[in-house]
Design a protein that fits this description.
Number of helices: 10
Largest sheet: none
Shape: elongated
Mean pLDDT: 93
Helix content: over 70%
Distance between the termini: 36 Å
Length: 206
């Protein structure tokens, strides 16, 4: 964050951001947005920072879940701009991934593909295995939608490797479920059963 901001503003903004995430997790969208907006307001004169980039992206996520795609996209683009100014590679990767999701939901598969690939490169170069896994899974879903089942298989397997690298069994179980359905579509029933069994075991253990 920018050292020119008074320490109390930084602390207050971080507290508001934390409260916003708690409200978001409780499903209190309006309360979350209120906290996030106040956090950004406190830092509006401090220049680009990691916290501002994150909070703007979280605001976009809330708007997305509320069904306001235009407002969500606006927040994601603002977050991307701040992340670029702050040289925040992780924030860039997350924002690009979010914009790819928006493009996909709007049916612009070519744009979604380009953005996902960019997000994947940023995540890998930044060493963010979990985000890399998320993007690979999104690429797998996109390939599946487009009927490119072999490509989807490669993407899902790459996602699984990334999640396993960080021990994220919840995300790994989701990918295994996708793999099971894909193997079923390909008529590979034994492999499908293996994937479903692994996913079930992980879910049961959690």
């Amino acid at each position: 964050m920018n050292d020119q901001s008074p320490l109390w503003q930084l602390r207050a903004a971080q507290d508001l951001a934390d409260r916003g995430r708690q409200e978001e997790q409780r499903g209190e969208a309006e309360a979350a947005l209120g906290c996030y907006e106040r956090a950004v307001g406190l830092l509006q004169d401090s220049g680009p920072s990691v916290l501002v980039a994150d909070v703007l992206r979280w605001m976009g996520r809330v708007y997305w879940r509320m069904g306001n795609a235009d407002r969500a996209e606006s927040m994601f683009r603002r977050s991307l701009d701040v992340a670029e100014e702050a040289k925040y590679r992780g924030g860039l990767a997350h924002s690009v991934n979010c914009l790819a999701i928006v493009a996909q939901q709007r049916g612009d598969m070519e744009q979604a593909q380009r953005l996902y690939v960019r997000a994947a490169r940023l995540a890998v170069s930044g060493g963010d295995h979990r985000l890399a896994g998320m993007v690979e899974q999104n690429l797998g879903v996109l390939a599946n939608i487009r009927g490119q089942l072999d490509v989807a298989l490669v993407r899902y397997r790459a996602a699984l490797r990334e999640f396993e690298a960080v021990g994220d069994e919840q995300a790994a179980s989701w990918v295994l479920n996708n793999l099971g359905m894909l193997h079923t579509d390909l008529g590979q029933y034994s492999r499908a059963q293996q994937a479903f069994d692994r996913a079930f075991a992980m879910a049961a253990a959690r």
